[in-house]
Design brief:
two-stranded antiparallel ribbon; ten-stranded mixed β-sheet; Isopropylmalate Dehydrogenase; 354 residues; globular; binds 3-isopropylmalic acid; 14 strands; 19% strand; binds magnesium ion
Length: 354
């Protein structure tokens, strides 16, 4: 198992350290685990003058899977795109063609009161947001700044999807639904945007190949309402890059904390990039208080998706449940009567439970 470990910036190194600890415990000492650390984000700029150094890119290309922490520094948005620490992740996703981003929003029963929503709304929640990850406004050309005829500064991006791009993500959605509750809700904005009109048309066409899966369509604004009001009515949500980015942060709050959500980004093969949904959280970086469970659950997804090792993956999941049931909580999910622990203590507790 050749795994590139790209811890990155902010809380990335702290939470990734715990994910590696748990990963090692889950696969056991006999497993052939090759972990290759490489610099990314601001760490890449410091080490090699590039947020995605050539050496890191090569290590990621050669690996079977990538465990990613986070990339980004405050004020990042004023730096030119290619040199921006946070954009290293986007460049990596694009280079490796990881177009299918699985963002499960799953509520551990112990955390039903950690959500800001009422218990009955979120209890038993288990949905999957499938976000297209290599197209849309994020990558569409042309993009940039210009000055118009009146001498005013303008900026523009292009929201663009090709039919094959929509088709391949739609297929992933229907296949995923077949392993779950056989429902796909495609989220778009077809009432306003041509690109989303095409999205709806193609998803509908692909849906005909999956008569056993129920397909519905929803505009993104309405989808946000339903996500807050009746999130359990969804099974698989398939959507574009921008809407998926926004919806998945919203869905994170249903589960109590963004510190709980892992994600897997896959392409056509088994190779994947696994990362917590949360970002670099510079305000709490270096304090050993961040929740490492999203990173730890990302390691679980890595074993499941890239190495077909359900046995070790289940060990991680069971251990996380045990630790939560035993009352261990990091600050973001703390509640009265719990044992509030640090980042490393949480990692130790999960590893010990394995
Ligand atoms: C995410 C993040 C990234 C994104 C940022 C860090 C570029 O918000 O993975 O959801 O927008 O895709
Ligand atoms: Mg996001």
């Amino acid at each position: 198992m050749k795994i590139a470990v790209l811890a990155g910036d902010g809380i990335g190194p702290e939470v990734t350290r715990e994910a590696v600890k748990v990963l090692k415990a889950a696969v056991g000492p006999a497993a052939k685990l090759e972990l290759i650390e490489a610099a990314i984000g601001q760490a890449g700029v410091d080490a090699a003058g590039d947020p995605l150094p050539q050496e890191t890119l090569q290590i990621a290309r050669d690996a079977d899977a990538i465990l990613f922490g986070s990339a980004g520094v405050p004020g990042d948005e004023v730096i030119p795109f290619m040199m921006r620490p946070g954009a290293s992740l986007l460049r990596l996703r694009k280079d490796l063609q990881l177009f299918a981003n699985f963002r499960p929003a799953f509520l551990f029963p112990e955390l039903a009161d950690a959500s800001t929503l009422k218990r009955e709304v979120v209890e038993g929640l288990d949905i999957l947001i499938l976000r297209e990850l290599t197209g849309d406004l994020y990558f569409g050309e042309p993009r940039g700044f210009r000055t118009n005829a009146a001498g005013e500064r303008e900026a523009f991006n292009t929201m663009l999807y090709s039919e094959p791009e929509i088709e391949r993500i739609a297929r992933v959605a229907f296949e995923a639904a077949r392993k779950r509750n056989r429902k796909v809700c495609s989220v778009d904005k077809a009432n306003v945007l041509e690109v989303m009109q095409l999205w709806r048309e193609v998803v509908t066409r692909v849906g005909k190949d999956y008569p056993d899966v129920e397909l519905s369509h929803m505009f993104v604004d309405a989808a946000v309402m339903v996500l807050m009001k009746a999130p359990k009515s969804f099974d698989v949500i398939v959507t574009g890059n921008v809407f998926g980015d926004i919806l998945s942060d919203g869905a994170a709050m249903l589960t109590g904390s963004i510190g709980m959500l892992p994600t897997a980004s896959l392409g056509v093969g088994k190779k994947g990039l696994y990362e917590p949904v949360h970002g670099s959280a510079p305000d709490i970086a270096g304090k050993n208080i961040a929740n490492p469970l999203a990173a730890i659950l990302s390691a679980e997804m890595l074993l499941r998706y890239s190495f077909d090792d359900a046995k070790s993956a289940d060990k991680i999941n069971t251990a996380v449940r045990k630790v939560l049931a035993d009352g261990y909580r990091t600050g973001d999910i703390a509640e009265a009567g719990c044992k509030t622990v640090s980042t490393s203590q949480m990692g130790d507790a999960v590893a010990a439970a394995i």
